[in-house]
Amino acid sequence: CGGGCYICVPLLAGSISEMLREMRIAHSKGADMVEFRLDHLTEFEPQADIPILLQEKQLPAIITCRPVWEGGKYNGDDDDRISALALAAELGADFVDIEMQKASELISALQKPSRAKVIVSHHNFDCTPSSEELGCLVSKMQSTGADIIKVVTTARSITDVIHVFQVLGRSQAPTIALAMGQQGLISRLLTPKFGGFLTFGSMASGRESAPGQPTIEELQDIYRLPRVGRETEVFGIIGQLVGYSKSPLIHNRFFQEIGYDGLYVPFLVHNFKVFFGAFHPLNFTGFSISIPYKEVALECCDEVESFAKAIGAVNTVVRRRSDGKFIGYNTDCEAAVGAIEDGLGGVNDGVSPLFNKLVVVIGAGGAAKAIAFGAKQRGAHPLIANRHYDRAQKLAEAVGGTAITLDQLYELQPSPGSVLANTTPIGMFPNENETPMPKSVLKHYSLVFDVVYTPKVTRLLTEAEELGLCVVSGFEMFIRQAIEQFSLFVAKPVPKQQLREVMLNVM
Ligand code: SKM
Questions:
Q1: Would you call 62 exposed, middle or buried from its count of C-beta atoms within 10 A (0-12, 13-18, 19+)?
Q2: Other beta carbons less than 10 A from residue 296's beta carbon
Q3: Catalytic residues
Q4: Are β-strands 148-154 and 316-319 bridged in parallel, bridged antiparallel, or unpaired?
Q5: What share of the chain is helix, strand, coil (3-state, %, to 5)?
Q6: Residue 44: Cβ within 10 Å count
Q7: Closest CA to 100 of 140, 154, 72
Q8: Is the pLDDT of residue 2 over 60?
């Protein structure tokens, strides 16, 4: 990578021939190195198998034979295992990996001088210890004579990843420091920025050697990790359903399109305030805010742009370059309302097609606020329906609309020309069979809009189409909000039409 970080594909095949086949695929997919996981071989004859692997290798290789007691599959004799690793070092392996407890045994068994570099590793499958504990561990590992240190922990919360970054910052030797699990994903994506020696990319989804590993394709095609270095600016989406977001795909492509040194990652966050406080010192540049944090994000910003303040929700937070302050914006409102207006034929002589129309909004969160506010601004009458009536009432009061219960929503017979907007995640992948509105009561509306964009046409929209109604997909809102957001991220005008075409191509 730009930061000198390698992309390594672990090979978990059960036979030597299959492992070599996978190595060739990994090579063609852009791997910088591979890890031969000897412990996954169903039959293993070190004297016969290791020479074949090393003669045939097309890439620098790590030789690993992980024992069961450290999370691997090898359950044979440890002395035999160490002899096999020493043999691999002698026959030209670039790296041999050994667990901390057995490091001195392997290092003393190696021929001197040895061309192979020794990776001394430690795995914690339970948690991520404190920075102090990790610091002690790293010193101990360094004292074994390791060439490279490898510390892999388990992230129980995204803030654990900060300890892992601190290991990279403090270590004197080349270091691999990663956190396993969904919450640890960003440790794998951001390691080039923090000086990590390598990151692992699996051959395919389901072929991970540790939980939370992205695939080599994701590392190459979505995050384009090889160009990431210490200067790369970090952006990302904060939310609870970020795994389904297309924002990483889009914003990383946008960076490429305009030649900007930025990396955009998913931040899977369960407590916004804790995350925001903990990550503040890392000087990340910008965030998209998604469900359910658009309101709490507004509270955490140093300043909020007046439009977003009036809406009461932000979906974009950018660190101002001049003073480092976080400024909140809302790009949802114009994106959604503009898409609905265009669905109704567009603004005519300065008059919005929403003027005097009833806009029924399902939900009362950040996206609902943006749409209700925008509709009111266009002269429409917002009607808010929500599972928690008190929240509907609060939003209705704030925008000058009316609140109704879900039962009232299902019985409503709105006047012709009315618009229905779903702002809840109901119907989103993987729950595509769900819908926030029974089909039988949809027929009264002229246009139905859904903020959900995965799938592009939700069940709600399919049923509306079947009834002959006009529909607007959340995909259109997604495109518009992302382009405006991107312009705020990079703090300059962007070629909007070009970016729109990029989005249509990649999605
Ligand atoms: O407001 C947007 C946000 O900026 C990005 C997003 C996503 O990536 O799914 C959805 C909306 O909440």
A1: buried
A2: 16
A3: 123, 150, 294, 332
A4: unpaired
A5: 45, 20, 35
A6: 19
A7: 140
A8: no
Best of 222, 247, 479, 488 for a ligand 1 pocket test (most atoms within 8 Å of beta carbon):
247
At residue 3, the pLDDT reads 62
Ligand 1 atom at shortest distance from the alpha carbon of 288: 4
Specify the residue with its C-alpha closest to ligand 1, atom 9.
Answer: 245
364 alpha carbon to ligand 1 midpoint, in Å?
A: 16
Residue 112: pLDDT over 90:
no
Q: Is the predicted pLDDT of residue 264 greater than 70, yes or no?
A: yes
Instruction: Please provide residue 160's backbone torsions phi and psi, each rounded to the nearest 5 degrees.
Output: -60, -30
Closest CA to 149 of 126, 124, 167: 167
* Dihedral sign, Cα of residue 390, residue 395, residue 401, residue 406: negative
In ligand 1, which atom is closest to the CA atom of 332? Answer: 1
What is the whole-number distance in angstroms between the Cα of residue 456 and the centre of ligand 1? 14
Phi/psi at 294 (nearest 5 deg)?
-70, -25
Gap between the Cα atoms of 369 and 453, Å rounded: 18
Tell me the HSE value of 62 on the side-chain side, using a 13 A CA sphere. Answer: 31
Token pair belonging to 2: 């730009």
Mean pLDDT across the stretch 194-222?
95
Rounded CA-CA distance 78/267 in Å is 40
pLDDT given for residue 11 in this prediction: 97
All structural domains of the chain? 6-231 (3.20.20.70), 244-330+479-506 (3.40.50.10860), 349-472 (3.40.50.720)
- Which residues are 200's β-sheet partners? 8
Q: Residues with Cβ within 6 A of ligand 1?
A: 237, 245, 247, 288, 290, 315, 332, 481, 485
* Edge-to-edge strand ranges of the sheet holding 358-362: 402-404, 381-385, 358-362, 419-422, 447-450, 470-472
Residue keyed to tokens 């495109």 = 479
Q: Whose CA is nearest to atom 11 of ligand 1?
A: 290
